[in-house]
Design goal:
Layout (H helix, E strand, L loop, with lengths): L4 E6 L3 H12 L4 E7 L3 H11 L3 E2 L3 H5 L6 E4 L6 H10 L3 E4 L7 H15 L5 E3 L9 H9 L6 E9 L17 H4 L7 H12 L2 E9 L4 E3 L6 E3 L5 E8 L4 E7 L8 E6 L2 E6 L4 E6 L6 E2 L12 H10 L9 H20 L3 E2 L2
Parallel strand pairs: 1-2, 1-4, 2-3, 4-5, 5-6, 7-12
Antiparallel strand pairs: 7-13, 8-11, 8-17, 9-10, 11-12, 13-14, 14-15, 15-16
Helix pairs in contact: 4-5, 5-10, 8-10
Length: 348
């Protein structure tokens, strides 16, 4: 399509408010025309904050609206499939939050609907993972250019202390299995998506899970309930490129540093999340040194602009597709099964 792109927002939580809406408002000839959230009062607050002219009581009215060309789906993953399928069927372009669905079957159905819509010039895209976004293209360049030689091993560490205190309530995080599904513990899937462009997808996985605090209060000072997700997960994967991939998540550690390390036959690259700091060294050098991200490989957050360009036909493929979401869910389901059964699990 050409001309002004009118966007409807479905789900106006923290990520939508802090990242997505400011991004859309920076794109020329793009207008956010309507917003809906689970509670009308929160949608009204967001509308007032960002100058959105209309608040809807139900996402279905946004999908059916004549003043909406595209929708952003920022709801919990359990609602993604229903909204995305309805929007695509109504001829609305779709930008969906990163966690595509709660299971691989639903993700495949969403991908198939996106392919059907594409044949009718309606486009779909997933929001890429936010962590390590800025330096991802530079690391991809280092891998593709042969700086590391043959890539042998990539390991990612997603650490924080948000669950280190046993009294931290479940309400402090995304701990509702009905909304988020049983498979995606914290940001395990996001970290997999970060590594995949460098290693290729997992062919088989071996996983382990640990829960350090079996019960937590539902709310501050509230009744105790079983902790639905593990505090720690480690997944080893053999990947399409031949590189071994390790994904470590632990949100119950003090002073842990989130980072990704890439080891090749001739060099090492380490990417620290804090400050988007990338370090590298070749074999024979004294040690890792910080390497600035070159302007031509810099990747500031321009996801909303990318989506609008996709809608306008200015680019052919999104950087992160519904098919990427399918592969993510297959990985998470395989890791879950592996941890429960204590064995390697082959991916489809």
């Amino acid at each position: 399509m050409t001309g002004r792109v009118r966007v409807g927002i479905i789900g106006a939580g923290g990520w939508t408010v802090s990242r997505v809406l400011p991004g859309f408002l920076k794109v020329p000839d793009c207008e956010v025309t309507v917003v809906a959230n689970r509670r009308r009062e929160t949608a009204e607050k967001v509308a007032s904050q960002f100058g959105i002219p209309r608040v809807a009581d139900d996402w279905r009215s946004i999908v059916a609206s004549d003043d909406v060309d595209a929708v952003f789906i920022g709801t919990p993953p359990s609602a993604h499939k229903e909204i995305a399928l309805a929007a695509l069927a109504a001829g609305k372009h779709v930008l969906c939050q990163t966690r595509i669905a709660t299971n691989a079957v639903d993700a495949i159905e969403m991908h198939n609907a996106a392919e059907w819509a594409r044949a009718r010039e309606v486009r779909a895209m997933l929001v890429p993972p936010g962590p390590f976004y800025r330096g991802r293209r530079f690391v991809a360049h280092l891998v593709a250019s042969g700086f590391l030689g043959r890539l042998r091993h990539v390991q990612a560490f997603n650490y924080n202390s948000s669950l280190a205190d046993p009294s931290t309530p479940l309400s402090a995080g995304r701990n509702d299995v009905d909304l988020y599904g049983p498979y995606n513990a914290a940001q395990l899937g996001l970290t997999y998506d970060v590594m995949t462009p460098w290693t290729g997808h997992a062919r088989r996985v071996l996983a382990q899970r640990a829960t350090f605090t079996a019960e937590r209060p539902l709310t501050p000072g509230g009744p105790m309930a079983k902790t639905p997700y593990p505090d720690e997960v480690t997944v080893i994967a053999e990947t399409e490129s031949g590189a071994v991939q390790m994904n470590v998540l632990n949100w119950a550690v003090h002073f842990g540093e989130s980072r990704v390390e890439l080891y090749g036959e001739t060099a090492t690259v380490a990417y620290r999340l804090r400050g988007d700091a990338i370090f590298a060294a070749r074999a024979g050098e004294d040690g890792l040194r910080q390497v600035p991200i070159p302007p031509e490989h810099d990747s500031p957050w321009l996801v909303e602009e990318e989506f609008i360009r996709l809608v306008r036909g200015e680019i052919e493929e999104p950087s992160f597709s519904f098919w990427d979401g399918v592969k993510n869910m297959q990985y998470l389901e395989a890791a879950y099964k592996s941890a429960l059964e204590g064995r390697w699990v082959e991916l489809v």
